[in-house]
Amino acid sequence: MMIACQTPIVGQRVNPAVTSIAREAQRIGIDIELLRRFLPVQRRQLQPDESLYRGGQTFSALYLVHAGFFRIAQISEDGREQVLGFRMRGELLGAEAIGLPTHVCDAVALDTAQVWELPFPAVLQACSEMPELQARLSAAMAEEMRRDRTWMLALGTLNAEQRVATFLLDLSARHAALGFSARRYLLRMSRMDMASYLALKHETVSRVLAHLIEIGCLEVQRRDVTILDAQRLAAIACTQTATPALRCAA
Amino acid sequence: MMIACQTPIVGQRVNPAVTSIAREAQRIGIDIELLRRFLPVQRRQLQPDESLYRGGQTFSALYLVHAGFFRIAQISEDGREQVLGFRMRGELLGAEAIGLPTHVCDAVALDTAQVWELPFPAVLQACSEMPELQARLSAAMAEEMRRDRTWMLALGTLNAEQRVATFLLDLSARHAALGFSARRYLLRMSRMDMASYLALKHETVSRVLAHLIEIGCLEVQRRDVTILDAQRLAAIACTQTATPALRCAA
DNA sequence: GAGGCTGGTTGATCTGAATCAATGCAGCAC
DNA sequence: GTGCTGCATTGATTCAGATCAACCAGCCTC
Questions:
Q1: Which of A227, A246, A207, A249 minimizes the C-alpha distance to A166?
Q2: B175 to chain A, closest Cα gap in Å
Q3: Which residue of A has its CA nearest to B77?
Q4: Residue B57: is its pLDDT beyond 80?
Q5: pLDDT value at position B16?
Q6: Contact partners, residue A141, CB within 8 Å, separation at least 6
Q7: Which end of chain B has fewer CB atoms surrounding its CB within 10 Å, N or C?
């Protein structure tokens, strides 16, 4: 069940990297009503842990998340697995398979979820009839690339605590963008999933959370997160171990 | 200057992750002659270290690499920098800025380079006149997403030595795909750039290279790399420290 | 050719996160 | 209730890679 406190979003300073991820989510701008006029758009319902698609399955549609949360993960041919991201309302799924016959990663619902199914070759057809849609599709794909790359930057330059703080603030901002509380939310994913996404081990995630709780930034009851000091969390997210030359302007 | 030995590509077993990155490069399939009919395509020449675009500059075109090498890097607002990839002939540059007024990362030529400049809003216009192009553009963007994600998987699951081996084999395969030697090539980037891309420190890259030389996999003279034992390198790239459950099928 | 500079290597040491190992705790079956 | 089972936390220890530091090889300028 979703926590949907109507707490207003406070005017907090957040890590620039975080806000840029969150802004993305708001901009997708693919309008279902518009699509309906050109495409046989269907709604599909998923149960927790049900997969929307898996690597290897035939690619036949893009999906727009309408409700619920998804985990995107990729498994290499030799069995290594990596969580690549989490998707919520308004975000696009499946675009990475465009141009291939089959999906290359897994999208799994983390709770009860609904998606709009946009049959694929038909989407391209619709694009050619409506140039506006074409622009939106490529913009949505570009946004997804930017999101991935912003995260690659985080993985390559931040330590464990900074990554966890960045992640928590990103979720906070994305919840806020959807009208939910930025202060308190439920983690839909396990610590394992978080750890994989953060390129850490789950024990490390636990320890970092314990530390953030200890210093008064957070309250965490299993998967129920309350951000007590967003300011400090933001400071941790980007400045902690920066060398003088790279220090935050903040 | 390029080393362009005409050594045939030997039928070596390579890391599946690596081949999948390399296969991408061959598939881009955006045909300049086709584009010319719809767009004012211009060729642009760059000197070593000259930037094609930088974060913050107005986004006005996509670029298709015709010759030379590029480094793609992103700098966060607080000054952290991360190399996101390297691009060579046939690969697309700038797509991540679609939908935004300005570029979000830097593309810098690593040697003398040439690109085809595809003025942007005009590309979309051309797409609507030619649905085939629309399909190719979205396929090219999807390929770029897959490339990024394959690398995220590598960063999240491989140790230093595996990453370096994977990187060297990826470069090898991409050179081969362009008709150059898979066995011997020049690294166009500094150790710093390599290290950033690999999310390591440059000292670590040096040490790993030294070790790979010591065990007879490689020969390296500054930036001139010769792969002596591709088989072994491939074995290192994916199996070395895998836990039993995750072990390579190989 | 001296001097300086950038990029690269190598060594010694330190440390953050991984690993190994227990323990706790909620939810579920029976 | 008892006993699972899966997820999460916490502690002790180890180790891969970072850090700090010295040194070297090209390469440029003068």
A1: A227
A2: 23
A3: A16
A4: yes
A5: 45
A6: A92, A95, A98, B98, B138, B141, B142, B145
A7: N
